[in-house]
Design a protein that fits this description.
alpha/beta, TIM Barrel, eight-stranded parallel β-barrel, two-stranded antiparallel sheet, 12 strands, globular, MbnB/TglH/ChrH, Xyl_isomerase-like_sf
């Protein structure tokens, strides 16, 4: 399991520091697809896994796609998991492929019973192949499906109940959806079980463009999201937390300062739980 501390998403500019054993890095996340296929990338993943608790985070599975899961993709992920024995494996609750074409955008799903049943079957298929629990992440959206008839939090909670999967709760995405779609981020958190389902939390920054909020992972975490994070820990208890920063990547010290702030909130939650 991941340690109950604040980690960072590891990106290329900071790999050397991580391999050298930077003392302020508590755990790391890497994108699974970046280290598929063995070779130098696979060796890098093994070296990192030997030094830090490691989370493998997928962006290309397409859990919500209609066509069958990509067998080669799932096979590559399974091989990687067996090689590095990660502390966690996660994937986005998104649609990103159709008719053999794959898009880089993590497109949101309709929150309907039909979609829920479909995704549950696919999550179970992935878990059976991996031999371990999958964490499923909520995504940001600019548009909502007009057929939605299940709340975002309720959808995640029922998916976890049917499959035994965990939830990787992206608090920033909840806030982005609140701004873009008028959804209630706090209500989504309240719909999730208080304990046992939320196994990891993501924090990130966003930008505003053409009247929309874009989950860009290119800015510090905003104050409103820090507030929601505090509420999330109050509800779910101390939870491993990751700082994501994927574009306009800052110096490592800046990234670690964000992680240190999350760690202070986590530490206060631990003290409160123990009181």
């Amino acid at each position: 399991m991941l340690p109950c501390s604040a980690g960072i998403g590891l990106r290329a500019p900071h790999v050397r520091a991580a391999l050298d054993g930077h003392p302020a890095i508590r755990w790391i996340e890497i994108h699974s697809e970046n280290v598929f296929g063995g070779g130098p990338a696979g060796q890098l993943a093994r070296e990192l896994a030997a030094r830090y608790p490691l989370s493998l985070h997928g962006v290309g599975m397409g859990l919500g796609a209609v066509e069958p899961l990509d067998a080669e993709h799932l096979r590559a992920l399974t091989t990687l998991v067996r090689a590095v024995r990660p502390a966690a494996v996660s994937e986005h609750l998104s649609f990103n492929r159709a008719h053999g074409k794959v898009v880089n955008d993590l497109l949101p799903l309709p929150y309907t019973e039909e979609c829920l049943a479909h995704v549950a079957q696919r999550v179970q298929q992935v878990q059976d192949a991996l031999g371990q629990r999958l964490l499923v992440e909520n995504v940001s959206a600019c548009l909502a499906c007009p057929d939605d008839d299940i709340g975002e939090g309720e959808f995640l909670a029922e998916l976890a109940a049917r499959t035994g999967c965990g939830v990787l709760l992206d608090v920033n995405n909840l806030y982005v959806n609140q701004l873009n779609l008028g959804r209630d981020a706090r209500a989504a958190m309240q719909a999730l079980p208080a304990r046992g389902v939320v196994a990891e939390i993501h924090l990130a920054g966003f930008i505003r463009r053409d009247g929309l909020v874009i989950d860009s992972h290119s800015q510090p975490v905003c104050e409103a999201v820090w507030g929601l994070y505090q509420e999330a820990l109050t509800r779910f208890g101390p939870t491993p937390t990751l700082i994501e920063w994927d574009l306009d990547i800052p110096p490592l010290d800046t990234l670690l300062a964000e992680a240190a702030r999350a760690q202070r909130v986590l530490d206060a939650c631990v003290v409160k739980e123990a009181a």
